[in-house]
Write a structure and sequence with these properties.
Length: 92
Amino acid sequence: METLQQFFDTFMQAWLQADLVFLVVFGLLFVIVWFLPSLLALLFNRQHLAKIALLNIPAGFSWIAWVALVVWAVTGKLGDKLAEKASLKPVA
């Protein structure tokens, strides 16, 4: 219990010593990282942007879901290209 109290006291001291610029920059970076799958979907996978953005909010609590959204956001156009290639080449 003392370890938890020491951690809390250290956190509160750091919070009180932080200036406004640091808190704004930290908050901005936190939001950018949290919504990185949505930002990547804006560039790579516009077809599923709304779904990725909606799922991005709860996915930030789970690293596994967050990484899965990043992969989905980045591979959007790749999936379309592979589907086009598969439909153009007949199987002999």
